[in-house]
Amino acid sequence: MNPTLLVGIDIGTQGAKAVVIDDMGHVVSSADVSYSFESPQPGWCEQSPSLWWEAVIACLHRLWKNGVDPADIRAVGATGQMHSLVILDERNQPIRPAILWNDGRTLKECGEIEEIIGADRLFTTTRNPILPGFTAPKLLWLKNNEPHQYSRIKKVLMPKDYLVHELTGEFSADVTDASGTCLLDVQKREWAWDIIKDLGFSSEWFPPVSESQEVVGTIGETASRVTGLPIGIPVVAGAGDNAAAALGNGIITERKGSISIGTSGTVFVPLNELPDLARDQAGTLHLFCHCLPGMWHAMGTTLSAGMSLRWLRDTFEKENYDDLLDGVEQVEAGADGLLFFPYLNGERSPLNNPRAKGVFFGLTYGHHRKSMARAVIEGVCYSLRDVLDMMEKAGIEVADWTVTGGAIKNPIWTKVLADVYQQHLQVHVEREGPAYGVSILAGLGNGVWKAVTDLPMLDQVANRITCNRENQHVYDAQFARYQSIAQAMNPLF
Q: How far apart are CA 153 and CA 131, in angstroms?
């Protein structure tokens, strides 16, 4: 009997990844391909969708080369970076490079949207503030600044929706990614057609919204020819990267939370119902649909998490992260008083300031590469604790934390995060990443598992990262400095 295999594909900011799992949730094989993004102007981030498709094709062929038989694949799921705007013309071709989630050009358009819709009405419907990284202000920016390109729009997609279209020829959206557009009625889990109309956007641009595990198409003949995937196997709607990663790590009940440190950093907490928060109380807290029907989640994001360490690696001209981090554990907690603010491309939560800039605060002659590297790691962890602080003020509590993302490959990240949070953390090494989570959605959509309670991987034991209580006073003091200095600097940016 042939094995039952499922494929999950992740369109990340710095590369694509494909994961194959079996019906017990074990990873059979994986492959990844790196690419980069462009910054035409300071604060801008763009990427060509063709990069994603070429990288996905390369990933899949590497899987087949690694010994995976494509004939054993039963279903496919796609995930990827949220908020990034993909616009297609009448020939279903990208009109221009995608404007990415960490692009900060749309502050003016955010104000325009609040004027047109009304800030309270917008929040009541979408349950989110309008932030520069979200999709709606990107569309308005195109209308204001590239009217010729805007006039050619026939479809508006997220990155993973673009991949689904390339695989199946179908246009689709899912509730998690659609939540991040600021154009979805998050409570009703459907497009906010009145807001779309009032902003002057065409309703025909937006594909039907599905639950994440719903089958929206099958692999087409052209896609089969270039990828090797069998014609006719089902493809599910998929999910945004954070929701997919949360599912893969078993973050599917209240009071469980995940902290992701990838290119960006995210704090994610599932909710059985949307909290009754006033707009001012919610601040920059994101309230989105989860990738499971009838569930939502709270989230906050720091824009430059792992990307901050990558910047430092490149600045010091190190070949790899091991070279950059050599000796960092010898630096005591608190980095000898040095603080790093990871606002290299603006900041979202909780500052909401696309003009913010990265800062080293407290540099002396005594600081060096090792103390700067530790300060960067600690600074990202402080920014994530800042997000947690925002959630706690909104009444959202978490008892168990799981950490995920590419940064967990180096133990210094998880040790510092555990100490800054003063929480024990869980790590599921095999189940790491959005691609794993969306492969589960593919299995749920194709009937490999009937319900989430049937998932065998949820019984797997996680690795435990213990916090060092002796570091609490150092990190509490440094975090208090971090918050006060960040608030003082914010108006100056």
A: 22
Helix (H) or strand (E) holding 229: none
Alpha-carbon radius of gyration of the chain? 21
Does the N-terminal peptide bond of residue 350 adopt cis geometry, omega within 30 degrees of 0?
Answer: yes
Question: Tokens 């590469």 identify what position?
Answer: 369
- Max CA pair span of the chain: 67
- The long-range contacts involving 396-400, CB below 8 angstroms and separated by at least 24 positions, are 396/269, 396/271, 396/275, 396/298, 397/255, 398/255, 398/256, 398/257, 398/269, 399/255, 399/256, 400/255, 400/256, 400/257, 400/426
**86 contacts 94 by C-beta, under 8 angstroms:** yes
Which of 348, 428, 455, 340 is CA-nearest to residue 22? 455
Residues recognised as catalytic: 241
pLDDT score, position 352: 86
Predicted local confidence at residue 344, as pLDDT: 94
Give residue for tokens 């595990």: 213
Domains in the chain, start-ordered, CATH in brackets?
Answer: 5-243 (3.30.420.40), 250-427+461-493 (3.30.420.40)
Strand, helix or coil at 389? Answer: helix
**In this structure, are strands 359-361 and 296-302 parallel, antiparallel, or unpaired?**
unpaired
CB 106 within 8 A of CB 39: no
- 308 by DSSP, 3-state: which? helix
Q: Are 396 and 269 in contact (CB under 8 A)?
A: yes
Can you read off the two tokens belonging to residue 454?
């049937």
**Could you give the C-alpha distances from 173 to 51, 85, 138, 213, 438, in angstroms and in order?**
21, 13, 18, 11, 14
Where are the extended beta strands (E) located within 312-354?
339-341
Q: Tokens for 113, please give them.
A: 């949207």
Angstrom distance (rounded) from CA 21 to CA 226: 22
Distance (Å, whole) CA 475 – CA 486:
16
Q: How confident is the model at residue 245 (pLDDT cuts 50, 70, 90)?
A: very high
Strand 209-210 and strand 173-174: the pairing is: parallel
In the structure, what pLDDT confidence band is assigned to residue 2 with cuts at 50, 70 and 90? confident
Residue 18 CA to residue 108 CA, distance in Å, equals 37
Q: Report the predicted TM-score, pTM, of the whole model to 2 decimal places.
A: 0.92
CA separation for the pair 101, 135 (Å, rounded): 8
Q: Which residues are annotated as a binding site for substrate?
A: 82-83
Cβ neighbours, 10 Å, residue 319:
8
For the annotated binding site, the residues are 82-83
